[in-house]
Amino acid sequence: MRINKFIAHAGVASRRKAEELIKQGLVTINGQVVRELATTVKSGDVVEVEGSPIYNEEKVYYLLNKPKGVISSVSDEKGRKTVIDLLPQVKERIYPVGRLDWDTTGVLILTNDGDFTDKMIHPRNEIDKVYVARVKGLANKENLRPLTKGVVIDGKKTKPARYNIIKVDPEKGRSVVELTIHEGRNHQVKKMFEAIGMPVDKLSRTKFGTLDLTGLRPGEARRLNKKEVSQLHNAAINKTK
Questions:
Q1: Which residues cross the membrane (predicted)?
Q2: pTM to 2 decimals?
């Protein structure tokens, strides 16, 4: 098995993140630093990442209703609370599938399955990610139309998105808009609305693929069952056909 896949299967990181660790010289096999991505792991090899031996774990999948003020990371050098701190009962080395900003709430998946993570976050698989944003300005078809064609953020055009106007409040000069995207670029939803002159002041992800927050209060998590995981896998596979 290739070293990056072995690391992903062990639940240390996604395959892409594993490649970064290898390039940085943080991975060893039998005490020797490995930098070649094509390196294979044989039976009996001792693999270490940042000095810690890794082993294959049972694959687990959790759905978290991320609250505001929590970092979507495994750890934080500033000592801030992370999403991992919200699941103290989980023994496996899980990590978030993608990220939600510190002040963004809602659906977040955590797992130790690197292949699953790659499927969920790769834009070619077109997994629906639904957000509800409270924005400044009065939303209408005209000013939201650019979102359906793609807007340029960070020098690159976004994929076409879908929107639904939930509420318009003329007195307060703001609106609530539901936006469905397939990508997961850094601060993407906020930057998309900013690009059309409607900055976001509150944001929540309400759906990820077939998952929503039914039955979960902020800060609560539950383990996904086999059917739910299979539905997410199938959604990614069907999109690539």
A1: none
A2: 0.80
Give strand ranges (E) for 30-170: 32-33, 47-49, 52-53, 61-66, 95-96, 105-111, 129-136, 152-153, 156-157, 162-169
Q: What is the pLDDT of residue 237?
A: 65
Residues 35, 66, single domain; the answer is no
Domain of residue 190 covers 128-208
Q: Residue 241 pLDDT > 60, yes or no?
A: no
Structure token pair of residue 165: 């106007």
What is the three-class DSSP state of 237? helix
User: Confidence class of residue 89 from pLDDT cuts 50, 70 and 90?
Assistant: very high
Say whether both 77 and 96 belong to one domain: yes
**Contact by Cβ (8 Å): 180, 128:** yes
Total domains, the chain: 3
Pull the structure tokens for residue 60.
């687990």
Q: Which residues are catalytic?
A: 101
Report which of 198, 195, 156 is spatially closest to residue 177, judged by C-alpha positions. 198
- Residue of 194, 192, 183, 218 lying closest to 204 (CA atoms): 218
- Which of 179, 191, 60 minimizes the C-alpha distance to 117? 60
| pLDDT 10s digits, 133-167 | 999 999 999 999 999 999 999 999 999 999 999 99
β-bridge partners, 222:
63
Other CB atoms within 10 A of residue 110 CB? 25
Are 100 and 219 found together in one domain? yes
